[in-house]
Specification:
It comes from Chelydra serpentina. The chain is mainly α. It has five helices and no strands.
């Protein structure tokens, strides 16, 4: 039983997901609230402002323009004070048509190091296959020794087999001679 005498935790509950329509409705409500606040700050335009507000809430096509206006509005005292921070980088979104895909790309340090590492590995493998590296020389020497040992072992085995055959042939001759008598 969990602490405090409670029966179950929160993790077993069914999750509730927000539908896209509900999200859109919430965003529209927030935009409308922001517009109302702007109008109150400007002093209110009376009946003309209310008519415009109703028209904009009905037209969803103009919502893109409202987003831009809302983003440009500064919060708090930012509208009163101009900040001149030389370290501040303003992010500008580039359009796909403005991107320069044909120009040379500058690689990051990690990418450059990775490419250099691959090239060095390829050079080493070429040298290794040509037998010019110390490791390749050691490998070739070891292989030569192994070949000699195998050739000697094969030669000994062949001699032993011949000696065995000769002994068996000589034994058969003796048997055949002894049977003939």
């Amino acid at each position: 039983m969990p602490k405090g005498g409670r029966k179950g935790g929160h993790k077993g509950r069914a999750r509730q997901y927000t539908s896209p329509e509900e999200i859109d409705a919430q965003l529209q409500a927030e935009k409308q609230k922001a517009r109302e606040e702007e109008e109150q700050e400007e002093g209110g335009e009376g009946a003309i402002g209310d008519a415009k507000k109703e028209k904009k809430s009905l037209d969803s096509d103009e919502s893109d323009e409202d987003d831009e206006d809302y983003q440009q509005k500064r919060k708090g005292v930012e509208g009163l004070i101009d900040i001149e921070n030389p370290n501040r980088v303003v992010q500008t979104a580039k359009k796909v048509t403005q991107l320069d895909l044909d120009g040379p790309k500058e690689l990051s340090r990690r990418e450059r190091e990775e490419i250099e590492k691959q090239k060095a590995k390829e050079r080493y493998m070429k040298m290794h296959l040509a037998g010019k590296t110390e490791q390749a020389k050691a490998d070739l020497a070891r292989l030569a020794i192994i070949r000699k040992q195998r050739e000697e072992a094969a030669r000994k085995k062949e001699e032993e087999r011949k000696a065995k055959d000769d002994a068996s042939v000589a034994g058969k001759r003796l048997q055949s001679l002894s049977l003939n008598k």
